[in-house]
Amino acid sequence: MITVENLHRHFGGFHAVDGASLKIETGSITGLIGPNGAGKTTLFNVIAGRLPPTSGRVTMDGEDITGLPPHELFHKGLLRTFQIAHEFSSMTVRENLMMVPASQTGETLWNAWFGRGKIRAQERALAEKADEVLDFLTISHLADERAGNLSGGQKKLLELGRTMMVDAKVVFLDEVGAGVNRTLLNTIGDAIVRLNKERGYTFCVIEHDMDFIGRLCDPVIVMAEGKVLAEGSAADIMKNEQVIEAYLGTGLKNKQAAETA
Ligand SMILES: Nc1ncnc2c1ncn2[C@@H]1O[C@H](COP(=O)(O)OP(=O)(O)OP(=O)(O)O)[C@@H](O)[C@H]1O
Ligand SMILES: [Mg+2]
Fold first, then answer.
1. How many degrees, rounded to 5, is the angle at CA 103 between CA 167 and CA 108?
2. Which of 34, 65, 111, 127 is the most exposed place for a label (fewest CB within 10 A)?
3. What is the pLDDT of residues 130-146, one digit of tens each?
4. 38 CB less than 6 Å from ligand 1?
5. What is the pLDDT of residues 167-213, one digit of tens each?
6. What is d(CA 158, CA 154) in angstroms, rounded to the nearest whole number?
7. How far is CA 253 from the centre of its chain?
8. Where are the domains positioned within the chain?
9. What are the beta bridge partners of residue 170?
């Protein structure tokens, strides 16, 4: 579904992504792992149109999508999750979901709902869709809660829910598990698997929690120093000596940094 060919993203003289090439197969839940600073988030930002690449190419279903802005990618079904924006935290969970289709087409709610005649019907359809999404994610009880009051994990679920308000094909998740308790992490994992199996979503998931990666992802791609270091099943990756070395390497560097600090 997605191919990345010899992608570079430099910040001044620093090569955050340094010639990365990879494929995300249709229907897969592909894991992307690697030590801190490996360039994973930068790679996501380039694929999702948030940062232009220095060079290289990204395609989706064979079509060149390099450097397309996020809203165009959104229309093609390529989504990445974002943290719930500050200005939405005083809105309810249901309202946050109802915002998604309008906000992503660049229309304000005002235009979308009140500029035309079909106000009520549109609003009802959006609310129904939002409730369906909340039901799928098993968080119906939070529909009327303010988004700002949700726990970290519940916010992650809501982020995932936002991808379900439109017809997503491929979803990029950056550290969905960070700071999330086990129970909610399992709920998030289950939702990802169900979206993959029942709705045909393709996923690319960055995560440091190897249990989570091992349970969900095949294949797993390992990045280090801006390049793809290895790819394989989670079990193979965890035995791969180059991979172990890459992690230990940064472990050592971190240790040295901590000691000199
Ligand atoms: N806007 C920027 N300007 C300068 N350097 C940047 C910028 N964004 C990222 N970097 C650097 O690029 C490198 C890769 O960062 P990136 O966030 O992509 O890593 P990562 O693999 O996502 O790491 P982590 O696991 O810690 O999230 C880091 O050294 C980072 O400091
Ligand atoms: Mg990152």
1. 135
2. 111
3. 999 999 999 999 999 99
4. yes
5. 799 999 998 888 888 888 999 999 999 999 999 999 999 999 999 99
6. 6
7. 28
8. 2-87+166-260, 90-149
9. 78, 202
